[in-house]
Amino acid sequence: MMKLNACFSNLLAFGLILFTFSNCGNSERKLPILGERDWTKKTVDGKEVVDTVYNTIPPFSFVDQKGDTITEKVVENKIYVTDFFFTTCPTICPVMKREMIKVYNAYKGNPEVMILSHSIDPEHDTPQVLNTYAKDLGVEGNQWLFLTGQKEKIYEIGQNSYMSTAKEDKTADGGYIHSGAFILVDKDKHVRGMYDGTTDEGTQKLIADIETLLSEYKK
Amino acid sequence: MLASFFIFMTSCQSAQELKSEQYFVEGYQLYTTHCSNCHQADGKGMSNLYPPINGSAALADKAFLACIIQNGMTDKIKVGGRDFNRPMPPNKKLTDIEIAEIVSFVTMKWKKDSTFTDIETVQAALKNCKVY
Q1: What region holds the Cytochrome c domain (chain B) (predicted)?
Q2: How far is B15 from B101, CA to CA, in rounded Å?
Q3: Min Cα–Cα distance to chain B from A20, Å
């Protein structure tokens, strides 16, 4: 009996391990939600509960390379990748665009994925300038938008919401400093990943994470 | 006598080769830092934004190369039948020898020049730059 018991518990343990393992395999890997979070208290069924408020991309209004006004509605029910650049940038922007082309090609035609590239030099980068730039880069259609607008608004959303540096600096080559990050945003406007947009390694990680994020929505 | 002449010739030759190699390696480093962001590591440029150097007719004109590396260019340029009209930024901080090294690298790498471009050639060119 003892022996049987031991055997049984062994089996149970084995089963448990197996269960844990298969559970691990089944539950998909999820990306973290990045950025500062806040807490609010609210009352549910007479009990006070704490609710986490995640960093969320606020509503915005910019103009794209075709001159159309673009708001947060454009990314409704889509995930998107965003970055900051300017067309006359001699340093990391060309590298970032070379890398972003890989993302663009990987998801071309996928209605769930968009790319938003913000110009941090909106005075020079008018919609016409951005349109020529996009065409010269080989980008057509509405999946990859190049945005310009009020400088303060672009810097504000960059620094505060996308957690990416974007500002004027006369001492930098080209006159601006900005991070080389690609930022992945989910359908709830939460930042789910930040990647080095100047390397193939960073870009491949982004593409892998886009897969992970997309599968969160496949139910 | 003949032997010493021979030795002189070969040593001269290898000094030349050594210098070419040196310019090529230095030039490669400088190219990677200052040029490859746009023109790419393989010199093939990037779509219709930045023209290729590899295969460009401009490689035959070292004076032109030296001038645009130093002063940049704003005029449009046709490379391989395609028009490019994005300004190239100047590189005022590059010294004459650094420009010579970059010119050496690009011409040896993509025009198969056998030897380096010396500082004197670059200095003479820089004195007579037009605005491109």
Answers
A1: 22-110
A2: 16
A3: 48
Burial of B66: CB neighbours in 10 Å, binned 0-12, 13-18, 19+: buried
Q: Please answer yes or no on whether B47 and A174 come within 8 Å at the CB atom.
A: no
In a domain, B13, yes or no: no
Q: What is the pTM of this model?
A: 0.80
Q: Is the ipTM of this complex over 0.85?
A: no
Asked if A117 and A86 touch (Cβ cutoff 8 Å), the reply is no
> How many domains is chain B partitioned into structurally?
1
Contacts of A98 in chain B (CB under 8 A): 40, 46
Cβ of B48 and A94 within 8 Å?
no
How many residues comprise chain B? 132
Q: For A67-93, what is each residue's pLDDT tens digit?
A: 999 999 999 999 999 999 999 888 888
The contacts of residue B96 (CB under 8 Å, 6+ apart) are B119, B122, B123, B126
Sheet order of strands, A181-185 included = A144-147, A113-119, A79-85, A181-185, A191-196
